Amino acid sequence: MDLRIAICDDEQKQIEYLTALVSAWSDRTSVTCTIDTFHSAESFLFDYAEDKKRDILLLDIEMGGMNGVDLAKTIRQTNDTVQIIFITGFPDFIAEGYEVSALHYLMKPVLPEKLHTVLDKAAANLAKSEKRLSVTYDRQTDFVPLPQIMYIEAQRQYVLIHTVSETYRMKGSLSDMEKQLDEYFIKCQRSFVVNLRHVTRIKNDCVVLKNASEVPISRGMAEKIGKEIIRLF
Q: More exposed terminus of the chain, fewer Cβ within 10 Å: N or C?
């Protein structure tokens, strides 16, 4: 398991201490961790705007400028999977942690065994959380839950990812996309992969989706798609 972990604290000694604890946990569990450190909420957000792939955030609450709770609220506007662990010297903000679905509060000084227990829980949550597709476009990245994807279409050197709410266009190949999908997706034609969760009707030359979209299928695929739907549902 590979995890991206961010530590955000305005005290360098605290950053170094937490980094050492996370590294020790990584060695104990054989979880590979990439650790990024930030000295303010603002510096984290600047980096996060370009790279949203974070699995766990160890977040100090009392920082100059934007505090940790406000940073967590900003993150939660677009990301509901990152595991947020608050680090604090005061219990005053605990109630606000429920608003941002914080995994846990740890009081300073942080005890190694307590942090390791919380990291175990965070890793378990991530392992069972809904799988998402990383979609990069217009110099930003979104993590789209697989059930929200209706179908994916190849267009030369690009792929179109059609979701229930919007369509993304990014450079890539259909074969690369297929490697990131789950068993509910099937390649129904040379240029199309369809999510069987959204199929409501099968015709000889296409499948009809819940939003009435029609996705073309190859000759002979209708029977295979029908069997897969019966198996999965």
A: C
